[in-house]
Structures are given as structure tokens and as C-alpha cells.
Specification:
3-stranded parallel β-sheet; 3 strands; 6 helices; mainly alpha; single chain
Length: 168
């Protein structure tokens, strides 16, 4: 994205803040590119019972200032940091709970006094070590619209099975 015109303390080395994520979303939307916003907590935050608060803050700060219509077609992935590349997957019931929370929070954030209830079409994906063995169980959950597949996409046989689970 070139040089960002933000305070230096917002752009740490190999680090994103909620503000830099918001600016990236803005830049992508200005170029007619639909962003995928990933939210999730670290293991320490999960163990401290802060998952809901962390995700709420990430969403409210990353989506601040956008009109509901600007975010039409947005994709949000719940990707617990502690599950990325570890082979550990969030328990299905917990993944469903957090994805439902994401859906509720986004609708609440985008609701304005003028427009009332926001009617934005967006998808919520789960992305924390999705693999063939857990894809079907995750994809049948009512608040999970699909998966953000990482390492499993590098194995064609594994990925075909994930796609088949999504197709079912």
C-alpha cells in the first residue's frame, strides 16, 4: 500500500493494528476489491476469557466509519491466532458461537440511527486449521458460511475433500 499517512506508532514492524486494518479495508474498497477481514484471539487472550472482547474491539475499530452499503459483500473470517498452522482447531460449538457473535456484532456496528437495522450482505468464514476431517462438521453450522483454508489447500487430495464437504 506504499507509505501510509498515519502516526508512526500505528505501523510497527511486521504488525497490524486495528487502525491499519481499517485503512487497508478503505484502500481496497476504493479499488473495488472486496476485502477479507480476519479476526481472532491469541492463546493468552483465549485463556484469559477475552475472546469476545478482543473480537468486538477488532471489528468495531476495523469497521469504524464505513457506511453499511460500502461493506456489501464483505467477508469476515474468524481465525483464532492460536489455531493458525498448529493443526489445532477450535471446538465446533465454540467456532459456531464465535461466528454467530461476529455476525451479531457486525450487524450492530453497521446499524445507524438513520438507516435502522443494517441490511448488509456479508459472509462469516471459519479459518483455523480447516481440514478434510473437520470441514463437514464446521460447514453445517448455521453461522459458518464456509472456510478460509490455509495449509490444507496445499495438498490437492485434502483440498478436494474440503471442497466436497462444502458442496454437501
Amino acid at each position: 500500500f506504499g507509505k501510509l499517512e498515519i502516526a508512526e506508532e500505528l505501523a510497527c514492524y511486521f504488525c497490524e493494528t486495528n487502525e491499519t486494518v481499517r485503512l487497508k479495508i478503505k484502500a481496497l474498497l476504493e479499488c473495488d476489491i472486496k476485502p477479507i477481514l480476519c479476526v481472532g484471539e491469541t492463546l493468552a487472550e483465549r485463556e484469559a476469557g477475552s475472546t469476545d472482547e478482543v473480537i468486538g474491539t477488532q471489528l468495531s475499530e476495523a469497521l469504524a466509519g464505513f457506511a453499511p452499503m460500502e461493506l456489501e459483500g464483505l467477508v469476515i473470517a474468524y481465525e483464532p491466532v492460536w489455531a493458525i498452522g498448529t493443526g489445532k482447531t477450535c471446538d465446533t460449538a465454540e467456532a459456531e458461537r464465535v461466528c454467530a457473535l461476529v455476525r451479531s456484532l457486525v450487524n450492530s456496528i453497521l446499524q445507524t440511527p438513520e438507516s435502522g437495522e443494517a441490511e448488509v450482505n456479508f459472509r462469516v468464514l471459519y479459518g483455523g486449521s480447516v481440514k478434510a476431517s473437520n470441514a463437514m462438521e464446521l460447514f453445517v453450522q448455521p453461522s459458518i458460511d464456509g472456510g478460509l483454508v490455509g495449509g490444507a489447500s496445499l495438498d490437492p487430495h485434502e483440498f478436494v475433500e474440503i471442497v466436497a464437504a462444502a458442496d454437501r
